[in-house]
């Protein structure tokens, strides 16, 4: 390839000498030129150079394994990575050409339906793979809306002039707000308040009317990992039905909890064991332990799924229902999920979830011992630790908050997000560490040390000790008494440890 000619025609401003004989990435003219950002370049680049330039851009990102903001898988076994790579060029939707992928999806659906105690099982299990829980939730919401329309028509009412509504807690993930807005459904929120971060059974019934398409409950809040009282909500809705005849379905958003509860809390009643639960979503790419790009929607039975959501194909010689928002998609994630189910089995998932809880508890205890934090997550829930700063144990006035602590930790490479609670409790600031499979206790000990160091630093530079505060106050008072308030510096001359 003649780099010197291309250099002349494509980059007039390029001053680096080109050398045809030197095939060396950082000796190429491209590494001394601006990277194309907004317009496709006329000519291409050698593969190694293009790859290096892009790798360099990516190098500035954070290390995914140190990103404790995310629930999404950041480590998989090399054997599964090989399977993923082998299927990278497979479009899942070409069912006739790649029947094994469809079969594998159906097996995953059946396994999840069985795990969640659905009514239709085995080859009859009803569900689909999706890009994530968000797509799965969109599909389940649409199904609930269509079922409500059917119910209204059956009751002799025209649903077209009516506004359907969905009840949910303010602790929902943003995908629920998207679902209601995209599909023209009124969102009826149960409000939260300080100390109450889930929807509680008593909240729900007062919001229900005949246009309620369903109640969305969460098995693992994004905010603090807590599970809604799903059985309790169902009980309240049973009582409501007895009183009013309104029969309101429930959907369980088990994005995180769907791969935790069956293994860590097998006695918890949250799934299709509750007759009112019509559908469940779960993210394969969270505690399903698969890399990003996979969610699942599972319905109780064929009747629970709105027929008009389903497109039928018979590429495989038998009826293959297709329920997705998108058409083409990769097959790798679905194959990876099947690998994980076969590879780990119940025992493997149970052991991993138990380890995560041990590491989460270890972290929680270390935070409590530091004396600076209060814990906002629960023992039963997603293995994450959500925590806030307390009043300073030595009575310092903190001039920093959770956001500054989060920023400080970034310097050691950790992404420990700070955020505010859901509406009505948004004055509560917190930090959250999601414990994923690849967070060993050894790695956690490094995080603990880095948090201690960060607090020491912030205390030193951004807090005022009681003694300093006293001196400052005395100084100010003295200044006001002895000298006229104007024309004098009110701040004391000695330097404070930080801002004042
Ligand atoms: C409770 C809950 N629901 C839904 C979602 C959206 O899931 P996904 O990222 O798989 O689309 C999340 C993501 O964090 C979540 O925590």
TrEMBL record:
Residues 1-20 are annotated as: Disordered. InterPro entries: Glutamate_decarboxylase (IPR010107), PyrdxlP-dep_de-COase (IPR002129), PyrdxlP-dep_Trfase (IPR015424), PyrdxlP-dep_Trfase_major (IPR015421). GO terms for cellular component: cytosol. GO terms for molecular function: glutamate decarboxylase activity; pyridoxal phosphate binding. The modification N6-(pyridoxal phosphate)lysine is found at residue 286. Pfam families: Pyridoxal_deC. It is an enzyme of class 4 (lyase). It catalyses: L-glutamate + H(+) = 4-aminobutanoate + CO2. It comes from the Eukaryota. Its cofactor is pyridoxal 5'-phosphate. One of its GO terms (biological process) is L-glutamate catabolic process. Keywords: Decarboxylase, Lyase, Pyridoxal phosphate. Its EC number is 4.1.1.15. The keyword NAD does not apply. Belongs to the group II decarboxylase family. This is Glutamate decarboxylase. The lineage of its organism: Eukaryota, Viridiplantae, Chlorophyta, Chloropicophyceae, Chloropicales.
